[in-house]
Structures
1.
Amino acid sequence: MNKHLVELVELSKIDKSVDSFTPQIEAAQNKIAREQNKVDEVTQKIESLQKIIEDNSGKIVTYEEQITTIDEQLKDIQKKNKIITSEREMKALSMEEELAKEKLTFANEEIERLGKVNNVKKADTEELEATLEELSVSVEDIKKVAQKELSSIEKQKEGLYKKRVDSVSTIDQKILAFYEKVRKWAGNTAVVAVKKQACYGCYMKINDKTYSEVIRGEEIIGCPHCGRILYLDRETSEVEA
C-alpha cells in the first residue's frame, strides 16, 4: 500500500479514537446537567414560594395598618355620637360606622386567610429546602464521579493528540490538506475501507477500474460517488476470498 495512504489510514484511526470520546464526555456532562436542572427547578420553586409569602406578608401589614386606621375612625364616630343634634347626623354616622365595621371584618378575614396561605407555603418551602439539600449533595457526588471520568478521558486524549502530532509531522502537507478537506464534511469517514467492491462510506459499488486501483494501492484514490479516500481492507478481503 502507498506509504502516504498507510499514513492517512493510521491518522484516520487516531482521529476516530479521539472523536470516540465525545459521546463519553457528553454523557458525563449530561449527568451533571440533568441533576443541576433538578436543583435549579427546586430553587425556582422555593424562590416563587418565598415571593408569594413576601407579597402576602406585605398585604397583611397593609391590612393591619387599615385596621389601626379603622379603629381610630370608630373611636371618632363614638365621640361624634355623643354630640349629634339631629336624626340626619345620626343616620350618616350610623352608615359610616357600618361601612367601617365591614372594612374591619374584611381586613381581619384577609389577614387570617393570608396567614393560613403563608403557613402552607412555608411548609412547602421547608419540604423543598430539604429536597434541595439532598439534590445538592447528589449533584456534588455526580460531579466528582464525572470529573474523574473526564480527567481520565483527557489523559487518554492527550496521548492520542501527541500521537496525532507525531503522525501529522511525517505526512506530506498537500496530502494532509486533502485529507483535512475531505474530513471537514465526511468527519471520521474521510478514509474508508473498500469491502465487497463497495465504498464503506457511501456504500455504493465502485467500478472495476477504480477497484483495481484501490487493490494496487499505489495512489490515493477517492470514491467516484462520494469523494472519500479509499483503501483496501486486506483482512476482510482475505476472508471474503
Note: Helices lie at 3-19, 21-81, 87-168, 173-186, 208-216, 234-240.
2.
Amino acid sequence: MKVFYDLHMHSCLSPCGADDMTPNNLVNMAALAGLQVIALSDHNTTKNVPAAVKVGREAGVLVVPAMELTTKEDIHVLCLLPDLDAAEAFRQYVYPRLPQRKNRPKAFGNQFVMDENDEIIEEETQLLNFGSSIGIYETGALLEDFGGLAVPAHIDRASYSLIGVMGNVDPALGFRVYETTIDCDREALMEKYGFQGGFISDSDAHDLIAIRDAERTLDVETMSPRGVIEAVRRLGETN
C-alpha cells in the first residue's frame, strides 16, 4: 500500500521550531497537505511525540515516534522508533549524554512540551540543540537495539550532515538508507561520493508553511510505525 509521507518535522519543543508548531497544528496541517504518515522528530527529544500520536489518531494521520539526534560529530541523524515505549526509552538514553546546559529561551528559542490539547505542560530546561556524546559510528547499531532505524539526515546539506561533516559516506558506518532534501539530485550525489543505498526525502519543517504538499510515497505492508520502519529499511535492501 502506497502512502504519502513526511518523516522529518519539528514541533515547538525544538528550540528552532516555531511556537505555533503545536501537536494539533502540525498534525492537522499535515492532514490538509494530504500526508498520511508523518514523524515528529524534535532535536534530541521525544517528549511531544505522545501528544502528536493522540492527535494523529483523531485526524487520521499515522504519527511515527522519532528524534533528530545530534551526534558528537555534529551530524544530524533521523531516528525512527517503533512505539512510544521505545521512544521514551531512547530519550532517557540520550538525555544524560547531552551537554548539561540549561536552555536560554531568548537566545535559543522556547522548548514547550504540550498535551494533545496544545496546553503547555512543561518547559524543557535541558538545552536540546547541542551535540550528544553518541558517535556516528555507533548510531546505527544503537537504534537497532531500540527496535528502530537510523537514517542520516539531509545528507546533501553543507552543515549538520554526514557528507557536510565527514566529506564522504564511509561504508563502515553501516547505513543503507539516507535522507535528502526534497529537491536534491540523488543520482549526482551518489556519483560524486561513490556510495549506494536507498533514499527518503522530507521537509524538515520547522514552521507550518514549510510542510509540503503530499508528493512522496512509501510502500508499506502495515499501517503502523513498525510497518513504516520496515518500508524505509527495504529501500536500502533494493538499491
Note: The longest strand covers residues 62-70.
3.
Amino acid sequence: MKRKRQTPSDDMRPEYTFDCTTAVRGKYYRRLLKEGANIAALEPDIAEAFRNSAAVNAALRSFLEMSETTRRLTTRPKRASRKQTAT
C-alpha cells in the first residue's frame, strides 16, 4: 500500500516564516509622500476599463491635449481697458 503524499496547507516553505504581529501598516507611506511618489487609486469600475498603467497614462495624456486645445478656443481676448471720460 502506497502512502499518500502530504500537501502542505501553506505554499510557503517552513524557513520563510512571517510573524504578522510585527507587521506595520503604511510603514513607507510618509517616505513615499516626501519623495514625491504620485500614486492614484482608481475605482474598480474605472480600473476595469484599462489594461495597465500605460493605457491609463495614454488616456490622461489625450485628455490633457484636448483640454489645452479647448482652453485656447474658449478664452476671451483681452481688451484694452476703457478710459472713463469726465462729463
Note: DSSP finds three helices and no strands in the chain.
